[in-house]
Amino acid sequence: MTTLVTGAAGFLGSHLTRQLVARGEDVRVLMRASSTNRAIADLSLEYVTGDLRDPASLERAMKGVKRVFHVAADYRLWARRSREIYDSNVGGTRNLLNAAKRAGVEQLIYTSTVATIAVDRPQLPNEFTDAKLKEMVGHYKRSKWMAEKEALKAAKDGLPVIVAMPTTPVGPWDWKPTPTGKIILDFLNGKMPGYVETGLNFVGVEECAAGHLLVAEKGKIGERYLLGSENLTLKQVLDTLSKITGLPAPRLKIPHGLALGVAYANTIFSRLLGRAPGIPVEGVKIARHMMFVDCSRAQRELGFKGGPVAAALERAVRWYEANGYIVKSRAKRMVRAAA
Q: If we measure between CA atoms, which residue out of 110, 101, 62, 145 comes closest to residue 224?
């Protein structure tokens, strides 16, 4: 049976692809001509060049495929042309669903995000929380909410779709890095003078990838499954990183209003220089909300185990260190602290 993976060269997608290959699966990956495969270059894979925005390339990728893991997404908190995010995440998902239906695919696992349900509620949100589009902050969240609706509608119309909802994966092989990885790197490189009061649910990326396999094995068509581990404040994460590295955690708590003003100024300055802002306004707006969730359903129904987040953060730190992401002066301090 051939399994197609989109987003196989990305952070979560590369881990999922590795686990599929380790199980002896025949794996085909869809990659854009401009993408690099360094995260999966050592694996025995079948490559198809294409793009989610190109229906013809999806038709080619689907030939002979029985199962699809649609992990690819445009995960940016800032884009010069926000339309690109919707074209990939919404239009691209719609194109893929249509191609899968025409190809007679037997199962499609759609990778959504915790962001589509992590909204302010009296109780912790879970898979049954009915969040509204107006509650989504920023283009990335809105696009993923809309794409998830496309996937669930396809399931109602007869396509065997199951939705996996990662929380915030952390761990090794975050080449790009992701927005979450950038926060970790900012700490490691001494670029974080303070922190804002916010919180997320975190999960080790390896465990999150394994959770996708459980969703495929035990999940129900048309259902959503949160793949997460621990609800942690940003301060708790920074303190954990401090324990891992011996580097001091920032003590200054920055008010959200001040952080937002700095983000707007940074965006204007970055636009003048023609580069992406280091502090995206969208990221600061998202940080106003605690994105804590109840992940117990996947544990009960799928047997999912998220693992300790501290261990995942340590794996991330050691990988960043081994691959030259940390400036030498800071890395030397880490070595002395570890000794």
A: 110
CB atoms within 10 A of CB 305: 13
pTM of the model: 0.90
Report the candidate in 76, 30, 39, 1 with the shortest Cα–Cα distance to residue 319. 39
* Structural domains of the chain, ranges and CATH numbers in brackets: 2-175+202-229+294-302 (3.40.50.720), 234-292+309-338 (no CATH)
Q: Are 162 and 219 in contact (CB under 8 A)?
A: yes
Strand, coil or helix: 192: coil
Nearest to 73 by CA among 117, 20, 111: 111
1: tokens are: 């049976």
Selection from 57, 31, 157, 46 nearest residue 101 by Cα: 157
pLDDT per position as a tens digit, 196-254: 778 999 999 999 999 999 999 999 999 999 999 999 999 999 999 999 999 999 987 77
Q: State whether residue 110 is helix, strand or coil.
A: strand
Name which of 214, 223, 226 is nearest 23 in CA terms.
214
pLDDT of residue 291: 85
Q: How far apart are CA 164 and CA 111, in angstroms?
A: 5
CA pair distance 107, 90, nearest whole angstrom? 20
Q: How confident is the model at residue 75 (pLDDT cuts 50, 70, 90)?
A: confident
Token pair listed for 86:
């919707």
